[in-house]
Amino acid sequence: MIDEVSFRVQAGNGGKGSVHFRREKYAPRGGPDGGDGGDGGSVYFVSDPNLTTLRFFSGKDRFAAEHGRRGGMARKHGENGEDIELRVPVGTVVEVVSGKDERKGALFADLDARDMRVCVARGGHGGRGNWYFRSPTNTTPRTAEPGTPGEARWLRLSLKVLAQVGLVGLPNAGKSTLLSILTAAKPAIAAYPFTTVSPNLGVLTEYSASLVIADIPGLIEGASRGKGLGIAFLKHIERCELLVYVLFPQDWVLAVVPGERKIGETIWKQREQLRAELAAFSPRLLQLPALMVFNKIDLLSQEEIESIRLFFRTKRVALIPISGATLTNIEGLRRAIVRQYNNVHNSK
C-alpha cells in the first residue's frame, strides 16, 4: 500500500500582454489594440472515494498546468492555460515541504470527505496588453505586462485511513482473524507476526449500524519512533473514534508452567505497552474511548481466564474475553462495539 508520496506542483504562468496597433486599409495609424494575456492553469486535488492508495503518484516528481497564451491583436484575449485535477483518496493529508526528501511540513489541506476540491497551486494572471495603457497623453503606448508567475511548491501527501473503529495490538494478536469474523473483509491471515503490513478495512453491520473497522499492523516497542512499521501505520488510527485493544497470551507466556505464569499481571503489562506507544505518538489517542479485548482464550484454562478478569477488575478496567478461533463471545463483542460507539455519538 503506497500511502506517502512527495512531488512538486507548478501552476501555469500568466500569458504576456500584446503590444499591437490597429492597422487597416482605411486606418493606417489606428490606436493600440493589444489584448491581455490568458491566465495560467491551476493545480487541484479532488478526493475520490473510489481510490484507496496514492499509487498513481509513485515515481512522479512534478505535475504542471499549462501556461496562459499571449494576447493578440484587436484586443483579443489570450487563451487561458488548462487546469489539471489530480484525484486522491479520501483521507489524504497535504503538507507543504521544502523538498522531496523533507519529512515534516506545514499542513495545507485535509481531504477528509468525498468530492472535496482544493487548489494547491494557483495559476498566474495574464498581463495587460497595450490597449489598457492608452491615455490622452500617451496615444501610442508600447508597453504591456508580462503576466505573473504561477505558484509552485513541493507537497507531501500522506493517506490516513477513514475508520470509526481501530483494532490495535501486538503482532500475532489475531486482529486480522477478528476483522474477518466481524466484517466481510478478507485480510491475509497466518500464524506468524507481521502478516498485516498495511491497514485492512472492513464494515461491521449490526443492529442497523454500519461501522468501518481498521486492522492496524501490529505494534512493537519503539513503534512511535519509527521502529518496525512505526509511524507508517500509527498515523492511520488518528482518525478513529473508538479503539479496540486486542490482548492475547504470547507464546513465551504459554511456555511457562500454568501455575507460575502470573498471567493477569503479564496481560496488564501488554496493555500498558500498547498505551505507552500510542501516547508517545500522540497523547490524544489515550483520550479516545476504548474496549479491552482478550483474545485466544481457547489456549487457557477457565481458572486462568477468570484470574485475568479479576486482575483487570482490580484496576477498574473491563475486559471482554473472546476466541477468534472458536468464535467464543464474538457476538458479545459485536454488541459491545456498537453500543460503545453509539454512546460516544450520543454524548456529543
From TrEMBL:
Keywords: Cytoplasm, GTP-binding, Hydrolase, Magnesium, Metal-binding, Nucleotide-binding. CDD domains: Obg. GTP binds at residues 169-176, 215-218, 295-298, 323-325. It is found in: Cytoplasm. Monomer. HAMAP family: GTPase_Obg. An essential GTPase which binds GTP, GDP and possibly (p)ppGpp with moderate affinity, with high nucleotide exchange rates and a fairly low GTP hydrolysis rate. Plays a role in control of the cell cycle, stress response, ribosome biogenesis and in those bacteria that undergo differentiation, in morphogenesis control. This is GTPase Obg. The gene is obg.
